[in-house]
Amino acid sequence: MFKSLRWRLTFWFVALTTIVYSVSALFGMWLFRIEMTSMIDEELHALVDEIRPAVACENNKPNLQEWAKTARQEPFKFLPTIQLFNSDGHLIEQHGPSGVPILFSSVKEVQAEDYHIRVLSSPLMQGKRFVGYLQLQLSLRNRERATKQFVVTMGFIFPLLLIGLGVAGYLFSAKAASPVEKSFAVLQRFMSDAGHELSTPISIIQANAEAMEAELPDKHVEHNRLAVIIRSTERMANLVKDLMLLSKMESPSIKSTKLPLDFEKLVRGVVEEFDELFKSKSIILNSENIKPATIVGDSESLKRLVTNLLQNSLRYTESPGRVAVGVRSTGRTVTLTVSDTGIGIQPESLPLIFDRFYRVDTSRSRSQGGAGLGLSIVKAIVDAHKARIDVLSKVGQGTTFTILFKGTSS
Ligand code: ADP
Q: What Cα–Cα distance (Å) separates residue 72 from each residue in 79, 192, 388?
């Protein structure tokens, strides 16, 4: 139980950290791109400011002829495409690598072949007259390359981080769960010790009450009182037994012996024990679907599991009802089903029925002799066999419990 708690804590720890890491990585990448783009824009603006004074203007036509002669001797730190457009928007001059002959009136990012370019256009004025545009275009290959590198680095760190977090998470959860484990062990020891201490005086009371009842004549006034004492002591003895069994099932130090067993025979044996009880309540007990199956398990606890399920269907089904028990084997899995046409369970109670002392209808359950431990014991046995239990129920129509065990051929 605590092993699975540790793994669950570790899983949630790793899952949450992975989400935080992924969100941070995506956010970091977004910030990184924004920062790089704004740096490129700054460079483009600086370059426009540097080139603009060199633009000559003849007959209202801008040109960079003079500037181009000197610029070749002093190459730029980075290589933009420089384009001049006239006031009608026609490209009239181009320097540097070939660009896209489109005019934009502001800063824009466009797709050019297989890469993006950043375009900055700045209007050119001669006095008060608008004469055209000076436009710079810069390939964003470097930004894409840097972003790719960023993603690769984050992707490379991720598995290492995952392993580190997994180990740290497991150690951390073991430390965090340790006080809970200790108090659980103390509680279990207490339950087991108290159970042992209580069972002896209860048996003494029971034996003495039974002896007294046997000695009294049937019509004696004390006869009924003694019968009540005997019934109550019997319930108390059963309750103590159930609590001891639960603490034994959940104790990690006590391992029950599990052997391959004839599950069909085991289930049929329990069904036969219930036959008379079902007949006396005029409820049909159908065992036609109990087929041959073998599972590895502890026969005593498996008998208890079937008993508890049958006891419940008997308790919560009225005459003329029907209860069907089935065993089916597919080799890989063995399925046990116990279904009844009883009172059913409300959907909101379904997640709680396996809790200790939980009863949907306390007074009804108590009057039928139930203490709310039957299904907790079933669940503990199911867990000890690494099986799975499902329950389907409809109020007024009935309930089906399905248990899936691993088959012997898996
Ligand atoms: P109890 O000893 O009260 O039967 P259990 O742990 O066996 O306790 O069951 C818990 C509760 O689940 C019961 O009180 C009952 O309300 C409900 N329950 C269990 N089995 C059935 C069933 N076959 N049909 C209807 N209700 C059921």
A: 12, 94, 79
With a 6 Å cutoff on the Cβ, whether 339 touches ligand 1 is: no
Instruction: Find all residues with CB under 8 Å of 164, minimum gap 6, and list them.
Output: none
CA 358/CA 355 separation, integer angstroms: 6
Give the Cα separation of 101 and 106 in Å (integer): 15
- Mean of pLDDT over the chain: 87
* Distance (Å, whole) CA 291 – CA 142: 70
Model confidence, pTM:
0.63
Verify whether ligand 1 is closer than 6 Å to residue 239 (CB atom). Answer: no
- On whether the CB atoms of residues 82 and 134 are closer than 8 A, the answer is yes
Residue identifier of the C-alpha nearest atom 8 of ligand 1: 372
Q: Is 343 in the pocket of ligand 1 (CB under 6 A)?
A: yes
Q: What is the reported pLDDT for 376?
A: 92
375 CA from centroid of ligand 1 (Å)? 7
Give nearest CA residue, ligand 1 atom 20: 312
Q: Is the CB of 340 under 6 A from ligand 1?
A: yes
Cα separation, 385 vs 366, in Å, equals 29
Percent of the chain with pLDDT over 70: 93
Residue appearing with tokens 């396996």: 354
Closest residue by Cα to atom 14, ligand 1, is 359
Tell me the per-residue pLDDT of 33-75, one tens digit each, with 9 for 90 and over: 999 999 989 988 988 888 888 888 887 788 888 777 776 555 5
Q: Residue 308 Cα, ligand 1 centroid: separation in angstroms?
A: 9
Question: Which atom of ligand 1 approaches the CA of 370 most closely?
Answer: 2
What is the longest distance spanned by two Cα atoms in the chain? 137
- Residue 231 pLDDT > 80, yes or no? yes
Residue 220 near residue 262 (C-beta atoms within 8 A) = no
**Does the pLDDT of residue 334 top 90, yes or no?**
yes
Label residue 266 by pLDDT band (50, 70, 90).
very high
Residue 56 is predicted with a pLDDT of 85
The minimum-distance atom of ligand 1 relative to the CA of 344 is: 25
Distance 353 CA to ligand 1 centre (A): 7
Q: pLDDT category, 293, cuts 50, 70, 90?
A: very high
How far apart are alpha carbons 403 and 386 in whole angstroms? 11
Q: How far is CA 369 from the centre of its chain?
A: 37
